[in-house]
Design goal:
This protein is mainly beta. The chain is built from seven helices and 23 strands. The protein has helices at 7-12, 81-84, 113-118, 150-159, 162-165, 217-223, 330-340, and strands at 19-21, 34-37, 39-49, 65-71, 94-100, 107-109, 127-134, 139-144, 166-170, 176-179, 185-187, 191-198, 204-207, 236-237, 242-247, 251-258, 263-268, 272-283, 286-288, 293-297, 299-317, 326-328, 353-355. Strand 14 and strand 15 (242-247) form a beta hairpin. It binds zinc ion (ZN).
């Protein structure tokens, strides 16, 4: 693991934007050290919300926003804006989003990798949700209420009765729902959730509440498990600060709770996403506040929890938990502060919302 001397001071020189991009001489692209403040891209959706508070200050003047995608910045911000414009962000294996619903989403299913590749897609999609808020009575559907044959499933999709045979259940803040590929699922109205998923747009729609979007009956029947959901393992408390919410071959999702003023080392040997969901913290020269996300890869960062602590979601590739992902360094941190002697850089402007009007929505 590379160590970066005077990490905080080095980052502090790049105060122009939210992004810190460090590249060491490396022989392998996986060794490129990266800490970036994610940008947020808004996605208009017919079921979305015009009130994104407190998660985002992005404009909703053009209509409801359903999804906020956290993305790596396309290029270091030292480049002129005209050059950076139009360039795609670097690819990631995982996609982190917030979803805000005022109407139910379609009932849908995602293929596994094998099926996705058989129809020319890069990979399938397993996803997981963390409920950030839910109005009273808000619900999600996961799996069917009891097993059906493929023929019965096809009939239920065709005549719309699928909405009555999926298993709906209420959700509350803090609930975690794992959706392995092949699980029929839907998200109801009145929910804000964080979603971590394999980066994929392989979605087959079974029912769309009369919104006239295309259904994908044959593919849905081919990939769906026509029965109740898999049993989901309960969250596992790893330490005072870490709870494993769910882990599968594609990603691990943890909740971390950092006490006010405590200092931690976050180790990210592989692609890692950190999303603040309560409180705030200082990470390098940037402040991480509610709704902000950071991307790290082959790097580590010191996190100093703010006066009200920090609660965050941490996601990285599976299939196993990284036991060394988070190490308390409170004493070390205080010494470093004292010896460094440099003033902290001004905090970044926070999240940047890129509004991207879309002619057609992703097939959610
Ligand atoms: Zn889905």
């Amino acid at each position: 693991m590379y160590r970066q001397p005077n990490d905080r001071r080095r980052l502090a020189r790049k105060t122009a934007g939210q992004q810190f991009h460090s590249i060491h001489s490396a022989t392998n692209k996986d060794d490129i050290l990266t800490i970036e403040h994610a940008i947020v891209r808004t996605k208009p959706k017919p079921w979305g919300s015009t009130d994104l508070r407190p998660w985002s200050q992005a404009s909703t003047s053009d209509g409801p926003i359903g999804e906020l995608w956290f993305e790596r910045p396309s290029l270091p911000q030292s480049l002129p804006h005209s050059l950076a414009k139009g360039l795609a962000a670097p690819e990631t294996a995982l996609l982190l989003k917030l979803l805000l619903t005022t109407e139910p989403l379609s009932i849908q299913v995602h293929p596994d990798d094998a099926f996705a590749r058989s129809i020319g897609l890069a990979n399938g999609k397993t996803e997981a949700w963390y409920i950030l808020s839910a109005v009273a009575g808000a619900k999600v559907a996961v799996g069917l209420n009891y097993p059906r044959s493929a023929a019965e499933l096809r009939t239920a999709i065709t005549d719309g009765s699928i909405a009555n045979i999926v298993h709906w259940h209420p959700v509350h803040q803090g609930d975690v729902i794992s959706i392995p590929a092949g699980t029929i699922h839907a998200i109801g109205a009145g929910i804000v959730l964080a979603e971590i998923q394999q980066y994929s747009d392989a979605t087959f729609r079974l029912f769309d509440y009369g919104r006239q979007r295309e259904l994908h009956i044959e593919n849905a029947v081919a990939v769906a498990t026509a029965g109740p959901r898999e049993v989901q393992a309960p969250p596992e408390q790893l330490s005072d600060a870490r709870i494993v919410l769910t882990v599968n071959p594609y990603f691990a999702l943890e909740q971390i709770d950092l006490a006010p003023g405590s200092v931690w080392r976050l180790d990210a040997p592989k692609e890692t996403w950190l999303l603040a969901i309560e409180g705030h913290a200082q990470l390098g020269s940037t402040t991480l506040s509610l709704g902000d996300a950071v991307f790290l890869q082959a790097d580590h960062a010191d996190i100093e929890a703010g006066a009200d602590g920090l609660k965050a979601l941490l996601a990285y590739p599976g299939p196993t938990i990284n036991p060394g992902a988070l190490t308390e360094r409170s004493a070390v941190g205080r010494i470093r502060h004292a010896s460094l002697g440099a003033p902290l850089a001004p905090t970044s402007p926070g999240r940047a919302a890129l509004e991207q009007p879309e002619a057609s929505n992703w097939p959610l």
